[in-house]
Every structure is written in structure tokens, then in C-alpha cells.
Amino acid sequence: MDSTRLRNIGIIAHIDAGKTTTTERMLFFSGINHTIGEVDTGTTTMDWMAQEQDRGITITSAATTIPWNSYTINLIDTPGHIDFTAEVERSLRVLDGAVTILCAVGGVEAQTETVWRQSNAYAIPRIVYVNKMDRIGADFDNVCTMMREKLNCNPLPLQIPIGSEDSFEAVIDLLDDVELHWKSSEPYEIERKPIRSEHIERAKNARIELLENLSEYNDELAILYLEGHEISNEFLIDAIRKATLDLQIIPVFVGASLRNIGVQPILDAVCRYLPSPHDKPEFSIVDPNTQKEKTLNAFENKELLALVFKIQYDREAGRICFVRIYSGTLSTGNQVCLASNKKKERVTRVFRIHANRQEQLRALSVGDIGAVVGCKSAMTGDTISLKPPSHVLESMQFPDPVITSSIETKTYSQRKDLESVLAVLASEDPTFSWKNDLQSGQLIILGMGELHLEVICKRIQDDFNISVRLGHPHVQLRETILHDAEGEFDETITLSGKEYPIALSIALKKNNAVGVQVNHSLEHLPEEVITASIETISGYLESGISFGYPGIQIEAIIKKMEIDKEQYSLAVIQSALVQCLEQVCKQAGEQLLEPIVNVNIVTPKEYLGEVTQSIIRRGGTIHSIESQAFSEQINAEAPLRIMFGYTTALRSATQGRGTASMHFSHFAPKPDTD
């Protein structure tokens, strides 16, 4: 495959912006599917899980490959619900570009801002597709304004709509100066027509704005424009592509996917403006011992380096690892090494994923995205290579779970089976975990929200045929220290008849910017002593100071450690560290923290008063209220513990018309009265 004609892109957006509907049209127009799948009827290709079809939402990121005008597009349709934000995070890690879909009515919504920030973190070039122009309240210009204000970006409309709501009928292409009309029946082909007289002035002004905006980022274009020269489309396309790849502008398109309007130009734009692997050849690798980074070129480095960005369990194939090839080639039959455990395993199958279907391949080459079977012990974020690597690919960071619930089987005989299934699900989802509570004897599951745990529970029943009951959810608290403290330990410890002198000093500082961080000046000591010391202190603080909740916002500093370097015991050092920590933690005091969530609510105007009061009654704080055409958007903040069941209560209070989304914001001190 010619990698210059390869595009690795994601579809990202707020829930209900039309991601899956748009993706289904892409599959149809590219010839992959012969019929159009619909979310409402549960016939979508990309939302292939039964739960996704039942709920009408995307839960897991689905991958497919689309051929388009001699290009190959590896496409990942990501979830829009905040509980599944890890699916977006790990997809963005391996993508080169993205299509962000905005609703023409809601514009930039809460989850849009979240995925936009995630995209910024990975410096991913984007184009924007303003969908649902046929909906009541659709306003293309307002969406562009919201992009500037909320996303702090520079939208560059390459199309403008003709009409809106019921009168939305076509699109004006500002590069070709034509109207694009879509036939209302299959194959929904585009008809290109001259711009009608009543739209000429608006189109002319929009093109002038386009040229002036783009000229700010291209000196050659600015000179041509100011001197009144004719500017060819080829020149404009190159200028737009360069500014897009440099993250200076965001090309904007418009349509109504449900009516099959506007989708083909998006595929054209992906090929024209978004990067190929050749446009982003540099990637970073890290020395796992020193954490020092260096940069490689994907096409100059011939050594296989592939990143496992997702793991999925399949009843027939078993453990499937989704991978991005950063350099080299991964072939069927290769014996590969996993960086996480240094194990060698044999790749038995290599294939492309088409949602829940597979296309067998001999190999995946540099820049490609696909899946492999055979890496049975691989973890999300693992580096795959042909030999033990001295450096690994940068891994991925995921948020810790903030909600817990007990889970139990209806019969005790199924408990062991449930534990095995929970282990499988935890290996798939880095934001889900489970534990066996030794005090209560219960199995406890931890996730990102109520919906997240409900989906896990339903999967256990549907996919693994184990009947389970879910307990009431509880928030996952954290512990921190109240103030800075310092302590010393200076003793000789006897172990197995030998005496080991040790003197050390540890300081704890409250640091809101970190989880648990251990700093030291122990370079004079053996490497195994340094490693054991860091692991001991991190493990102690992360397992809780007094109440057993994970510790955060704590910086530990090993200020002094004196041992006999010729004769020492790691067990003695670890014991001394723990004793010193116990002393320092008592001096520092402890404080419980609870998760605070940002709450974004959209409600019809007539229910605004009732909805704001419902937030205030629950102890939330309202930060702003934004008026939209037919609704009000409330931005608030509240402790997660008081928001359980809120979405159900909101639907009841607004006759099913209100929606709410919540995402974790930060941890704050938990009131003693609760």
C-alpha cells in the first residue's frame, strides 16, 4: 500500500451529534455496504454490539477501512458519552487526523470540548462537519462563532448551507463556486449546479472571507489576493492543506447525514486536507529506565515498533490486539516481544477490522492500523517489537475510576467464572477494574459512571451468560495529607541474626498538581535500592493513609538515606521506609476527598426554573446559563455522590426532553457531615 494515500482518522463528537449516522453513509457511498444502517432501527455496522443497538449510542470504538478515490481510509468511530472517554483517548493516540462532527443546533457541546482538548494534546489536524442542518434551530453561523469562542480555533468554512431547518436544501461549494444538490433517492448522487442569483452575493462574500482568512497564514496567497490575481483551486487546496496540518485553521463543511446530504465531500476533504503517515513521520520513544525521550522517523527506522492501543475479547478468536505500526512490518508468524513483560509470543493472525468483521492479511506495514491474534499477555499501551527493545513507544494515560458498586452472581457456583470474566473485561478497558473485598467478601467493580457499570453488567449477562446483580453505586473517595510534615528513622534493624544500620529522612508535601510523586537524591546508592524505595513509598501512599482509599496530591521527598552499601537488605530498607512513613503521615494528618463533576444540562426553556432548582437542591453550583434557539444550556458543578440517578430525574421533570452529561472535574475535600 502507498502510505502517502493512507489516512488514519477518527470520528469524534458529543453524544447524539450524528457520528455513527455519518459513518454509515461513508460506508455506503464508498461501496463497503450495499444498504445504509440506521441507529434508530438498530441496523448499524459500526455500532455492532447488541447494547449499542438497543441504547442507540456508541459504547466501544469501532474500526473499519474505506476505499475512496484511490485512497485508503482507516476510520475509527468513537463514543460520544463521557463514561467511555477512554475509547476516544486511546483512539486519538494512534490517529493522524480527525473529523469532528457538530450538531447545527447544539453547536459546541460539553463532550465536544473534552474531545477537542484531547485532540489538541496529540496535535491532531481536524476538519469539522456541521451536521443536522435540517433540524429545528439549526444555525451554521452560530456554530462557527461557538467554535471560535469555546474551542479557541479558527474555523474556515469551505461550504455554506442554502436554507436551514425545513428549508435546508443544498450546499454552496466556495472553492468551485457551485451549488451541490443531492438526489433524494438512491444512489443519492451529487448534482452540481450554477449558483442561483439570490445566493450569488452571499457566496461571493463568503469566498472573500475565506481568502482573507487563509491569507493570514500564507504570504504567497496574500500577495496574489491583494494584487487581484486569479487564484487556482489547486493553489487554494495546497494552502488549506498546509494550514490544516499546521493546526492554524479548521476547514468546515455542512450537511444533514440522515437525509444523505453532505457526506461525500467529507470523504474528499479527508483525502485532501488530513495527513498521511508521511506527513507525520516523526514519533517518540522512551527509555523505560530513565524516561528520556528521543525521536525516530517511521520510514527511516526499519525495526518493528507497534503500539497496542485496544484489546478486545472475541469468543472465537480470543484476545484481539488492535495495533498501530509506527515502523517496520508485522507479519503473520512473527515471534514478537512484549515490552510490558518481556514475553515472546507468536502472531498467528493479522487482519483489518471492519466493525465486527475481519479481513485476513499477511502483514501490516508502517503507518497502518489493524489487529493481531496471538499476543495473549499484551496490555493496552504495550509496545510490540521483534526483539527486546531498549526504548518503548509512549504509552497512554487513563483517568482512575470514580464510582464503585458491588456485584454478585445469583448462584455462588458462578463466582469463580465471574472473577475470570471481570479479569477479561478489565484487560479490555483500562478505566474499569475490580477487586475482592476481603472484609465483606464481596466483589467490587470500579468504573467511570453509572452507565459504564450498567454496560459492564449487561455484557457479563449477554456475552458470558452469567446472571449478576449490581449493588447501589458509591463514589470512589481519595485521601491526601492536610499539611506538610517531615520525619526521621535512625536505627539498626536485626534480620536473621544480622544487623543492618539505616538512617533516613522523608518529607511529605501537599501538591495539588500530582497524584503521588516520589523525589529523591539517592544517586549514590545501588539502582535496586532506589527502585525498591520509590516503589515502597508509592505503594504505601497510593494504598491509603488512614482509610484505605488511594492517596493523591502528595509529593514525597527522600531527603536522606544512609546504609551500608556493601551489606544491606532490601527487606530492611522497605520496613524502615514504612515505619518512617507511618510517623510522617501522623504528623501530616489526613483528609478525605470526593470526586466533583462538571454537569452540562440542556433543557427546553419552559423548564429552566425547575431544572436550576433541582441542581441547587442537590447541592450543586451553577456557573453559567447559555440561551439557545429553543433551549437553555446550564453549566454546573456538583459532588458526584449527589448526582446518582439525576439523568432519570431530569427526563421525568422535562417530559423526556432534557439531557444531561457529566464528566469528572477534580477531587475536593469531603464535608465531615456526610
Description:
The chain has 674 residues and is α+β, with helices and mostly antiparallel strands. It folds into 5 domains: 271 residues, P-loop containing nucleotide triphosphate hydrolases (Rossmann fold); 112 residues, Beta Barrel (Elongation Factor Tu (Ef-tu), domain 3), CATH 2.40.30.10; 74 residues, Elongation Factor G (Translational Gtpase), domain 3 (Alpha-Beta Plaits), CATH 3.30.70; 106 residues, Ribosomal Protein S5, domain 2 (2-Layer Sandwich), CATH 3.30.230.10; 78 residues, Alpha-Beta Plaits (2-Layer Sandwich), CATH 3.30.70. 27% of the residues lie in helices and 34% in strands. It is built from 15 helices and 38 strands. The chain has an 8-stranded antiparallel β-sheet with strand order 18-17-23-14-15-22-19-20. A 7-stranded mixed β-sheet has the order 2-3-1-4-5-11-6, sandwiched between helices. The longest helix has 19 residues. The chain starts with 5 loop residues before the first strand and ends in a 5-residue tail after the last strand. About 2% of the residues have low confidence.
Low-confidence stretches: 46-61
CATH class of the largest domain: Alpha Beta
Can you summarize the main beta sheet? Answer: 8 strands, antiparallel
Rg estimate, integer Å: 28 Å
CATH topology term of the largest domain: Rossmann fold
Return the average pLDDT rounded to an integer: 87
Please give the order of strands in the largest beta sheet: 18-17-23-14-15-22-19-20
Specify the oligomeric state.
single chain
Shape: globular
Binned, the helix content reads: 25-40%
Helical segment tally?
15
Kindly estimate the percentage of residues that lie in beta strands according to DSSP.
25-35%
CATH homology superfamily name of the largest domain: P-loop containing nucleotide triphosphate hydrolases
User: Total strand count, please?
Assistant: 38
CATH architecture of the largest domain: 3-Layer(aba) Sandwich
Distance between the termini: 61 Å
Structural class: alpha+beta
How many domains, as an integer? 5
